[in-house]
Write the C-alpha coordinates for this entry.
Amino acid sequence: MEFKDYYKILGVSDDAEASDIKKAYRKLARKYHPDVSKEAGAEARFKEVGEAYEVLSDPEKRAEYDQIRQLGARGYQQGAAGAGTGAGQGFSEEDLSRQFTDFFESIFGGMGGGHRQAGPDWQQAFSQRGQDMHHKIALFLEEAASGVQRQIRLQVPEVDAYGRVHRRTKTLNVKIPPGVVAGQRIRLAGQGGPGVGDGATGDLFLEIELAPHPVFGVDGKDLLLTLPVTPWEAALGARVKAPTLTGQVNLTIPKGSASGQRLRLKGKGLGRNPTGDLIVTLQVTVPKRHSDEALALYQKLAQTEADFDPRKQLEARS
Amino acid sequence: MNTTVTTIVVTEHQLSDETTVWTLTEVCERTALSRESVMDLVDLGVIRPTAESRRGAREWTFQDQALARLQRASRLRRELELDWAGVAVAIDLMEEIQQLRREVDSLRKQLYRS
Protein backbone atom coordinates (compact mmCIF):
# COMPACT_ATOMS: atom_id res chain seq x y z
CA MET A 1 0.00 0.00 0.00
CA GLU A 2 1.30 3.37 -0.97
CA PHE A 3 1.91 5.90 1.75
CA LYS A 4 -0.11 9.04 1.19
CA ASP A 5 1.44 12.35 2.11
CA TYR A 6 -1.65 14.38 2.90
CA TYR A 7 0.39 17.53 3.48
CA LYS A 8 1.89 17.28 0.05
CA ILE A 9 -1.50 16.59 -1.50
CA LEU A 10 -2.89 19.81 -0.02
CA GLY A 11 0.36 21.65 -0.70
CA VAL A 12 0.84 22.76 2.90
CA SER A 13 3.73 22.36 5.32
CA ASP A 14 3.37 19.86 8.14
CA ASP A 15 3.11 22.63 10.71
CA ALA A 16 0.34 24.42 8.80
CA GLU A 17 -2.40 26.09 10.84
CA ALA A 18 -5.92 24.70 10.62
CA SER A 19 -6.99 27.83 8.77
CA ASP A 20 -4.30 27.34 6.10
CA ILE A 21 -5.33 23.74 5.65
CA LYS A 22 -8.91 24.83 5.16
CA LYS A 23 -7.85 27.49 2.69
CA ALA A 24 -5.74 25.03 0.71
CA TYR A 25 -8.58 22.51 0.66
CA ARG A 26 -11.12 25.06 -0.55
CA LYS A 27 -8.88 26.18 -3.34
CA LEU A 28 -8.09 22.66 -4.53
CA ALA A 29 -11.66 21.43 -4.09
CA ARG A 30 -12.86 24.24 -6.34
CA LYS A 31 -10.16 23.48 -8.85
CA TYR A 32 -10.70 19.75 -9.08
CA HIS A 33 -14.39 19.40 -8.32
CA PRO A 34 -15.73 16.96 -10.93
CA ASP A 35 -18.74 19.18 -11.54
CA VAL A 36 -16.46 22.08 -12.36
CA SER A 37 -13.23 20.69 -13.77
CA LYS A 38 -12.95 19.02 -17.13
CA GLU A 39 -9.30 18.24 -16.54
CA ALA A 40 -8.32 14.59 -16.95
CA GLY A 41 -7.82 12.95 -13.58
CA ALA A 42 -9.69 15.73 -11.77
CA GLU A 43 -11.95 13.25 -10.07
CA ALA A 44 -9.04 11.24 -8.66
CA ARG A 45 -7.34 14.43 -7.48
CA PHE A 46 -10.56 15.61 -5.90
CA LYS A 47 -10.93 12.38 -3.95
CA GLU A 48 -7.36 12.62 -2.78
CA VAL A 49 -7.82 16.21 -1.66
CA GLY A 50 -11.04 15.28 0.15
CA GLU A 51 -9.30 12.46 1.95
CA ALA A 52 -6.35 14.64 2.92
CA TYR A 53 -8.68 17.29 4.28
CA GLU A 54 -10.73 14.71 6.14
CA VAL A 55 -7.62 13.75 8.07
CA LEU A 56 -5.81 17.05 8.48
CA SER A 57 -8.90 19.05 9.45
CA ASP A 58 -9.59 16.76 12.40
CA PRO A 59 -7.06 17.35 15.22
CA GLU A 60 -7.32 13.77 16.48
CA LYS A 61 -6.90 12.18 13.08
CA ARG A 62 -4.16 14.60 12.22
CA ALA A 63 -2.20 13.70 15.37
CA GLU A 64 -2.59 10.01 14.63
CA TYR A 65 -1.55 10.50 11.05
CA ASP A 66 1.48 12.62 12.01
CA GLN A 67 2.70 9.77 14.19
CA ILE A 68 2.38 7.24 11.42
CA ARG A 69 3.97 9.62 8.99
CA GLN A 70 7.03 9.97 11.21
CA LEU A 71 7.39 6.34 12.07
CA GLY A 72 5.90 4.16 9.49
CA ALA A 73 5.91 5.79 6.11
CA ARG A 74 8.56 3.34 4.99
CA GLY A 75 6.52 0.33 6.00
CA TYR A 76 3.68 1.41 3.80
CA GLN A 77 5.83 1.67 0.77
CA GLN A 78 7.25 -1.80 1.31
CA GLY A 79 3.93 -3.36 2.19
CA ALA A 80 1.44 -4.74 -0.22
CA ALA A 81 2.67 -2.97 -3.28
CA GLY A 82 0.20 -2.54 -6.06
CA ALA A 83 -2.78 -3.04 -3.81
CA GLY A 84 -4.25 -0.04 -5.54
CA THR A 85 -6.59 2.51 -4.16
CA GLY A 86 -10.08 1.76 -3.06
CA ALA A 87 -11.46 4.42 -5.31
CA GLY A 88 -13.16 1.91 -7.54
CA GLN A 89 -16.05 2.67 -9.81
CA GLY A 90 -19.56 2.35 -8.67
CA PHE A 91 -19.34 4.40 -5.54
CA SER A 92 -21.98 6.87 -4.78
CA GLU A 93 -21.14 9.80 -6.97
CA GLU A 94 -22.18 12.50 -4.55
CA ASP A 95 -19.88 11.16 -1.92
CA LEU A 96 -16.65 11.41 -3.83
CA SER A 97 -14.98 13.31 -1.06
CA ARG A 98 -15.90 10.56 1.34
CA GLN A 99 -14.49 7.70 -0.67
CA PHE A 100 -11.33 6.81 1.03
CA THR A 101 -8.38 4.82 -0.08
CA ASP A 102 -7.23 1.61 1.51
CA PHE A 103 -4.42 3.64 3.02
CA PHE A 104 -6.92 5.80 4.86
CA GLU A 105 -8.96 2.85 5.97
CA SER A 106 -5.93 1.01 7.24
CA ILE A 107 -5.40 3.85 9.69
CA PHE A 108 -8.85 5.11 10.52
CA GLY A 109 -11.10 2.17 9.75
CA GLY A 110 -13.97 1.86 7.36
CA MET A 111 -16.37 4.47 8.64
CA GLY A 112 -13.87 7.27 8.49
CA GLY A 113 -16.18 9.77 6.96
CA GLY A 114 -18.86 9.34 9.59
CA HIS A 115 -18.55 12.68 11.24
CA ARG A 116 -18.97 14.57 8.02
CA GLN A 117 -22.23 12.87 7.28
CA ALA A 118 -25.12 15.23 7.76
CA GLY A 119 -27.46 12.45 8.84
CA PRO A 120 -27.52 10.80 12.23
CA ASP A 121 -24.42 8.92 13.22
CA TRP A 122 -25.04 5.31 12.30
CA GLN A 123 -23.69 4.00 15.55
CA GLN A 124 -26.28 5.87 17.56
CA ALA A 125 -29.21 5.19 15.33
CA PHE A 126 -30.97 1.87 15.58
CA SER A 127 -31.62 1.82 11.90
CA GLN A 128 -30.67 3.81 8.89
CA ARG A 129 -31.39 3.48 5.21
CA GLY A 130 -28.57 2.11 3.16
CA GLN A 131 -26.62 4.46 0.97
CA ASP A 132 -27.90 5.18 -2.52
CA MET A 133 -25.27 4.44 -5.10
CA HIS A 134 -24.68 5.83 -8.56
CA HIS A 135 -23.16 4.24 -11.59
CA LYS A 136 -22.63 5.66 -15.02
CA ILE A 137 -23.09 3.48 -18.09
CA ALA A 138 -21.84 4.61 -21.47
CA LEU A 139 -23.80 3.22 -24.41
CA PHE A 140 -23.44 3.47 -28.13
CA LEU A 141 -26.38 5.09 -29.85
CA GLU A 142 -27.30 1.78 -31.45
CA GLU A 143 -27.45 0.17 -28.00
CA ALA A 144 -29.58 2.98 -26.62
CA ALA A 145 -31.99 2.65 -29.52
CA SER A 146 -32.31 -1.12 -29.54
CA GLY A 147 -31.67 -2.05 -25.90
CA VAL A 148 -28.66 -3.83 -24.49
CA GLN A 149 -27.48 -6.06 -21.68
CA ARG A 150 -24.59 -4.84 -19.61
CA GLN A 151 -22.63 -6.34 -16.78
CA ILE A 152 -21.63 -3.87 -14.14
CA ARG A 153 -19.40 -4.29 -11.12
CA LEU A 154 -19.94 -2.27 -8.01
CA GLN A 155 -18.15 -1.92 -4.74
CA VAL A 156 -20.79 -2.13 -2.05
CA PRO A 157 -20.08 -1.49 1.60
CA GLU A 158 -20.92 -4.31 3.98
CA VAL A 159 -21.02 -4.12 7.76
CA ASP A 160 -19.64 -7.09 9.66
CA ALA A 161 -20.62 -8.31 13.13
CA TYR A 162 -18.17 -5.88 14.74
CA GLY A 163 -19.65 -2.90 12.97
CA ARG A 164 -16.69 -2.59 10.65
CA VAL A 165 -17.31 -1.70 7.07
CA HIS A 166 -15.84 -3.77 4.28
CA ARG A 167 -16.23 -3.47 0.57
CA ARG A 168 -17.55 -6.26 -1.55
CA THR A 169 -17.62 -6.46 -5.30
CA LYS A 170 -21.09 -7.06 -6.60
CA THR A 171 -21.80 -8.01 -10.18
CA LEU A 172 -25.09 -7.17 -11.82
CA ASN A 173 -26.39 -8.07 -15.24
CA VAL A 174 -28.64 -5.25 -16.30
CA LYS A 175 -30.94 -5.52 -19.27
CA ILE A 176 -31.66 -2.03 -20.52
CA PRO A 177 -34.74 -1.68 -22.71
CA PRO A 178 -34.72 0.28 -25.96
CA GLY A 179 -35.39 3.98 -25.69
CA VAL A 180 -32.92 5.38 -23.16
CA VAL A 181 -31.58 8.90 -23.69
CA ALA A 182 -28.48 10.71 -22.47
CA GLY A 183 -28.61 11.68 -18.82
CA GLN A 184 -31.44 9.25 -18.11
CA ARG A 185 -31.53 7.89 -14.58
CA ILE A 186 -32.74 4.38 -13.96
CA ARG A 187 -33.47 3.44 -10.40
CA LEU A 188 -32.77 -0.11 -9.34
CA ALA A 189 -34.52 -0.37 -6.00
CA GLY A 190 -32.69 -2.25 -3.28
CA GLN A 191 -29.39 -2.60 -5.17
CA GLY A 192 -27.47 0.04 -3.20
CA GLY A 193 -25.67 -0.04 0.12
CA PRO A 194 -27.02 -2.17 2.98
CA GLY A 195 -29.17 -0.57 5.64
CA VAL A 196 -28.23 -0.56 9.30
CA GLY A 197 -30.59 -2.30 11.73
CA ASP A 198 -34.07 -2.23 10.26
CA GLY A 199 -33.05 0.31 7.65
CA ALA A 200 -33.93 -0.52 4.07
CA THR A 201 -31.26 -1.22 1.50
CA GLY A 202 -30.31 1.79 -0.59
CA ASP A 203 -31.02 2.06 -4.29
CA LEU A 204 -28.71 1.98 -7.25
CA PHE A 205 -29.14 4.76 -9.79
CA LEU A 206 -27.81 4.09 -13.24
CA GLU A 207 -27.05 7.13 -15.28
CA ILE A 208 -26.93 6.73 -19.04
CA GLU A 209 -24.23 8.42 -21.06
CA LEU A 210 -24.07 8.20 -24.83
CA ALA A 211 -20.76 7.72 -26.56
CA PRO A 212 -20.07 10.08 -29.45
CA HIS A 213 -21.15 8.61 -32.77
CA PRO A 214 -19.15 9.05 -35.98
CA VAL A 215 -22.22 9.91 -38.01
CA PHE A 216 -25.05 11.09 -35.78
CA GLY A 217 -25.16 13.95 -33.31
CA VAL A 218 -27.64 13.96 -30.44
CA ASP A 219 -29.94 16.68 -29.19
CA GLY A 220 -32.12 15.22 -26.45
CA LYS A 221 -34.30 12.66 -28.19
CA ASP A 222 -33.46 13.92 -31.67
CA LEU A 223 -30.62 12.61 -33.78
CA LEU A 224 -28.77 14.99 -36.09
CA LEU A 225 -27.30 14.08 -39.42
CA THR A 226 -25.50 16.26 -41.93
CA LEU A 227 -26.21 14.85 -45.36
CA PRO A 228 -24.00 15.90 -48.28
CA VAL A 229 -25.87 16.42 -51.55
CA THR A 230 -24.69 17.51 -54.98
CA PRO A 231 -25.67 20.92 -56.40
CA TRP A 232 -27.77 19.21 -59.09
CA GLU A 233 -29.56 17.05 -56.49
CA ALA A 234 -30.34 20.22 -54.54
CA ALA A 235 -31.48 22.08 -57.63
CA LEU A 236 -33.46 19.34 -59.35
CA GLY A 237 -34.63 17.38 -56.36
CA ALA A 238 -33.63 13.76 -55.86
CA ARG A 239 -34.28 10.55 -54.06
CA VAL A 240 -31.19 9.56 -52.07
CA LYS A 241 -30.29 6.99 -49.44
CA ALA A 242 -29.71 8.29 -45.94
CA PRO A 243 -28.44 6.32 -42.92
CA THR A 244 -30.54 5.95 -39.78
CA LEU A 245 -29.72 3.98 -36.63
CA THR A 246 -31.87 1.15 -37.93
CA GLY A 247 -30.59 1.06 -41.49
CA GLN A 248 -30.81 3.08 -44.67
CA VAL A 249 -33.95 4.87 -45.77
CA ASN A 250 -34.92 6.61 -48.99
CA LEU A 251 -35.10 10.32 -48.58
CA THR A 252 -36.63 12.80 -50.98
CA ILE A 253 -34.61 15.95 -51.44
CA PRO A 254 -37.10 18.61 -52.49
CA LYS A 255 -36.48 20.50 -55.70
CA GLY A 256 -34.66 23.76 -55.04
CA SER A 257 -33.14 22.77 -51.67
CA ALA A 258 -30.37 24.88 -50.18
CA SER A 259 -27.40 24.07 -47.98
CA GLY A 260 -28.44 24.13 -44.32
CA GLN A 261 -32.01 23.16 -45.10
CA ARG A 262 -33.43 20.72 -42.58
CA LEU A 263 -35.56 17.68 -43.20
CA ARG A 264 -37.22 15.86 -40.34
CA LEU A 265 -37.65 12.09 -40.32
CA LYS A 266 -40.31 11.43 -37.72
CA GLY A 267 -39.66 8.70 -35.18
CA LYS A 268 -36.13 7.91 -36.36
CA GLY A 269 -34.53 9.37 -33.22
CA LEU A 270 -34.07 8.11 -29.68
CA GLY A 271 -36.32 7.62 -26.67
CA ARG A 272 -39.95 6.66 -26.30
CA ASN A 273 -43.37 8.26 -25.92
CA PRO A 274 -42.84 9.81 -28.36
CA THR A 275 -39.63 8.71 -30.04
CA GLY A 276 -37.50 11.61 -31.25
CA ASP A 277 -36.83 12.50 -34.87
CA LEU A 278 -33.83 12.33 -37.14
CA ILE A 279 -33.07 15.85 -38.28
CA VAL A 280 -31.19 15.87 -41.56
CA THR A 281 -29.29 19.02 -42.50
CA LEU A 282 -28.43 19.23 -46.18
CA GLN A 283 -24.95 20.27 -47.15
CA VAL A 284 -24.39 21.07 -50.79
CA THR A 285 -21.04 19.61 -51.72
CA VAL A 286 -19.03 20.02 -54.90
CA PRO A 287 -16.34 17.71 -56.25
CA LYS A 288 -12.73 18.82 -55.63
CA ARG A 289 -12.08 18.68 -59.37
CA HIS A 290 -14.43 19.06 -62.29
CA SER A 291 -13.98 17.65 -65.76
CA ASP A 292 -13.61 20.13 -68.60
CA GLU A 293 -17.06 19.19 -69.73
CA ALA A 294 -18.54 19.90 -66.32
CA LEU A 295 -16.72 23.23 -66.17
CA ALA A 296 -18.19 24.15 -69.53
CA LEU A 297 -21.64 23.32 -68.21
CA TYR A 298 -21.00 25.54 -65.17
CA GLN A 299 -19.92 28.33 -67.50
CA LYS A 300 -23.16 27.96 -69.34
CA LEU A 301 -25.07 27.89 -66.05
CA ALA A 302 -23.31 31.06 -64.94
CA GLN A 303 -24.43 32.84 -68.08
CA THR A 304 -27.98 31.55 -67.88
CA GLU A 305 -28.37 32.50 -64.22
CA ALA A 306 -26.51 35.81 -64.48
CA ASP A 307 -29.36 37.60 -62.72
CA PHE A 308 -29.08 35.55 -59.55
CA ASP A 309 -27.04 37.39 -56.93
CA PRO A 310 -27.04 35.58 -53.58
CA ARG A 311 -25.12 38.51 -52.01
CA LYS A 312 -27.67 41.18 -52.83
CA GLN A 313 -28.82 41.37 -49.22
CA LEU A 314 -25.27 41.93 -47.97
CA GLU A 315 -24.64 44.81 -50.35
CA ALA A 316 -27.87 46.51 -49.41
CA ARG A 317 -26.79 46.51 -45.76
CA SER A 318 -23.19 47.52 -46.10
CA MET B 1 -15.20 -13.23 -2.96
CA ASN B 2 -18.85 -13.46 -3.75
CA THR B 3 -19.38 -14.27 -7.40
CA THR B 4 -23.14 -14.41 -7.69
CA VAL B 5 -24.43 -12.40 -10.58
CA THR B 6 -27.90 -10.96 -10.32
CA THR B 7 -29.76 -10.23 -13.52
CA ILE B 8 -32.02 -7.21 -13.49
CA VAL B 9 -34.43 -6.49 -16.29
CA VAL B 10 -35.30 -2.82 -16.56
CA THR B 11 -38.79 -2.30 -17.97
CA GLU B 12 -39.67 0.46 -20.40
CA HIS B 13 -42.08 1.76 -17.79
CA GLN B 14 -39.10 2.51 -15.55
CA LEU B 15 -37.70 4.89 -18.16
CA SER B 16 -40.61 7.28 -17.90
CA ASP B 17 -39.87 10.52 -16.06
CA GLU B 18 -43.15 10.33 -14.24
CA THR B 19 -42.61 6.84 -12.88
CA THR B 20 -40.46 7.81 -9.94
CA VAL B 21 -41.97 10.34 -7.59
CA TRP B 22 -40.53 11.11 -4.19
CA THR B 23 -42.19 12.60 -1.12
CA LEU B 24 -40.51 15.41 0.82
CA THR B 25 -39.67 12.94 3.58
CA GLU B 26 -38.05 10.59 1.08
CA VAL B 27 -35.90 13.24 -0.57
CA CYS B 28 -34.73 14.43 2.87
CA GLU B 29 -33.82 10.89 3.81
CA ARG B 30 -31.93 10.29 0.58
CA THR B 31 -30.01 13.55 0.51
CA ALA B 32 -29.50 13.95 4.27
CA LEU B 33 -30.94 17.46 3.86
CA SER B 34 -33.36 18.98 6.35
CA ARG B 35 -36.90 19.90 5.31
CA GLU B 36 -35.94 23.55 5.74
CA SER B 37 -33.02 23.16 3.32
CA VAL B 38 -35.24 21.49 0.73
CA MET B 39 -37.79 24.29 1.14
CA ASP B 40 -35.01 26.87 0.75
CA LEU B 41 -34.02 25.21 -2.51
CA VAL B 42 -37.63 25.27 -3.69
CA ASP B 43 -37.75 29.00 -2.87
CA LEU B 44 -34.52 29.54 -4.80
CA GLY B 45 -36.01 27.77 -7.79
CA VAL B 46 -33.46 24.94 -7.82
CA ILE B 47 -36.25 22.35 -7.68
CA ARG B 48 -40.02 22.39 -8.04
CA PRO B 49 -42.52 20.14 -6.34
CA THR B 50 -44.87 18.34 -8.72
CA ALA B 51 -47.86 20.36 -9.89
CA GLU B 52 -50.36 18.07 -8.15
CA SER B 53 -48.65 18.39 -4.80
CA ARG B 54 -48.42 22.18 -5.13
CA ARG B 55 -52.17 22.33 -5.61
CA GLY B 56 -53.16 19.80 -3.01
CA ALA B 57 -52.83 19.96 0.76
CA ARG B 58 -50.82 16.75 0.86
CA GLU B 59 -47.09 16.51 1.38
CA TRP B 60 -44.97 17.87 -1.43
CA THR B 61 -43.76 15.35 -3.97
CA PHE B 62 -40.88 15.63 -6.42
CA GLN B 63 -39.93 14.01 -9.69
CA ASP B 64 -36.73 12.02 -9.87
CA GLN B 65 -34.97 14.88 -11.65
CA ALA B 66 -35.48 17.02 -8.55
CA LEU B 67 -33.84 14.35 -6.41
CA ALA B 68 -30.87 14.27 -8.76
CA ARG B 69 -30.57 18.06 -8.48
CA LEU B 70 -30.84 17.93 -4.71
CA GLN B 71 -28.09 15.34 -4.54
CA ARG B 72 -25.91 17.59 -6.63
CA ALA B 73 -26.85 20.65 -4.55
CA SER B 74 -26.07 18.89 -1.31
CA ARG B 75 -22.73 17.74 -2.70
CA LEU B 76 -21.77 21.22 -3.92
CA ARG B 77 -22.69 22.80 -0.61
CA ARG B 78 -20.64 20.33 1.35
CA GLU B 79 -17.67 19.96 -0.94
CA LEU B 80 -17.26 23.56 -2.03
CA GLU B 81 -18.65 25.07 1.18
CA LEU B 82 -21.19 27.20 -0.70
CA ASP B 83 -24.37 28.65 0.73
CA TRP B 84 -27.70 27.75 -0.88
CA ALA B 85 -27.81 30.90 -2.99
CA GLY B 86 -24.31 30.08 -4.29
CA VAL B 87 -25.39 26.51 -4.97
CA ALA B 88 -28.38 27.77 -6.96
CA VAL B 89 -26.19 30.01 -9.10
CA ALA B 90 -23.61 27.24 -9.60
CA ILE B 91 -26.25 24.74 -10.70
CA ASP B 92 -27.85 27.22 -13.11
CA LEU B 93 -24.48 28.01 -14.66
CA MET B 94 -23.43 24.37 -14.87
CA GLU B 95 -26.63 23.46 -16.67
CA GLU B 96 -26.24 26.37 -19.02
CA ILE B 97 -22.68 25.32 -19.80
CA GLN B 98 -23.81 21.76 -20.38
CA GLN B 99 -26.55 22.95 -22.73
CA LEU B 100 -24.11 25.22 -24.61
CA ARG B 101 -21.57 22.42 -24.90
CA ARG B 102 -24.21 20.19 -26.41
CA GLU B 103 -25.10 22.89 -28.90
CA VAL B 104 -21.47 23.54 -29.79
CA ASP B 105 -20.95 19.80 -30.29
CA SER B 106 -23.91 19.41 -32.57
CA LEU B 107 -23.11 22.58 -34.53
CA ARG B 108 -19.51 21.46 -34.93
CA LYS B 109 -20.73 18.14 -36.16
CA GLN B 110 -22.82 19.86 -38.81
CA LEU B 111 -20.03 22.23 -39.83
CA TYR B 112 -16.97 20.08 -40.05
CA ARG B 113 -18.25 16.79 -41.29
CA SER B 114 -15.33 14.74 -42.39
Q: What stands out?
A: The mean pLDDT of chain B is 85.
